[in-house]
Amino acid sequence: MLEDMARPTTATHDELLAAAARRFAVTGYKGTSLQDIARDVGCSKATVLYHFASKDALLCELMAPAITMLEELDARIAAHTGAEARRAAADGFVDLAVRFRREIALLRGEFPDLLQQPAFAHIQQISERLVAAFAGFSDRPEARVAALVVLAGIAETCGEFLDIPDEQLRPALLAVAYRALEVTT
Amino acid sequence: MLEDMARPTTATHDELLAAAARRFAVTGYKGTSLQDIARDVGCSKATVLYHFASKDALLCELMAPAITMLEELDARIAAHTGAEARRAAADGFVDLAVRFRREIALLRGEFPDLLQQPAFAHIQQISERLVAAFAGFSDRPEARVAALVVLAGIAETCGEFLDIPDEQLRPALLAVAYRALEVTT
DNA sequence: TCAGGTGCTGACCGATCGGTCAGATCCGCA
DNA sequence: TGCGGATCTGACCGATCGGTCAGCACCTGA
């Protein structure tokens, strides 16, 4: 009965986060209102704004773990060069995409707007470095096109396979990424 | 002076279409207001709704050529089987993506919502047939993952290369698609 | 000259958005 | 018993959304 009543106050907080993640993934960030989230949890819209400073703050908290992992990946890529960096980028990004496919899915097409926000400003630069690594640090158009197709394709796709386990999705994504990125030099 | 004054009334109409296409491509459909479009053209919001029955109607007219080409592609794929259908799908889709990259870009992430609309309802089924053709009509998860990555990657990417000519973008996209889709059978 | 259609507009509508605020309720603790 | 903080709420705010409408300016053909 006193299970983890140690911090009972966070129950609603977590419920709201979960509900927001579910909603965002289906109708997008702009397409989801605080009313929608509140209704799902069974509280008032004011309660949502009691637990989160703003709608943006809610999104930030939701994306924080994924962004942390992305920053770690960025650092790992920077520690390598050439083909090793490329492999690290592909492996790491696929891993990130699989683990956070729900969070990535909810950004579907709202990246441009969200990147404007200060909290997400550096994501833009990280993703540019990711594309460069995927392209093998070549500036040939073919290499850049292939890099963007794979990057965007994985990001856009991973959210569609919520039903199959990580261990099956990861190798499938890695295989197609490796095949697509074998750019002739 | 009497150039093509034959139909001078369509000037604003076309300007509005062009402005809407530009805006939608940058800020998305939901993220663009009729005010924005009107301001770009230099007319009032009411004028936009004089030329188009609704915001949705504007989008429909904007997408009509691309949708027609997509339907033609669908028919062409249905006329083939196996590897031929797959090749027809890849070639045709890349061609469509290159030619209508602006229009495709503006649907970024708003597909889910827009497909709900009756006018776009059948696009859902066409895209499913496209994925199936890309996957070589296999239901193996690896094949379906690769198909979706390539399809979504191309759709998501083509709008990023508005500055390079069709003749350069098309072979680059085709190359990465062929590489990625060489699924081992 | 004037009737009628076309193109266009400002004012306005109801709905919904994110966000604020005063206060109600409930709690552990002195 | 009562105080204070945490949790939650309904009412409300200004802004913006897509859309409506009466009417103005202009051109054209009878």
TrEMBL record, chains A, B:
The keyword Repressor does not apply. PROSITE patterns: HTH_TETR_2. Residues 10-70 form the HTH tetR-type domain. Residues 33-52 bind DNA. Keywords: DNA-binding. The keyword Membrane does not apply. It comes from the Bacteria. This is Transcriptional regulator, TetR family. It comes from Micromonospora tulbaghiae.
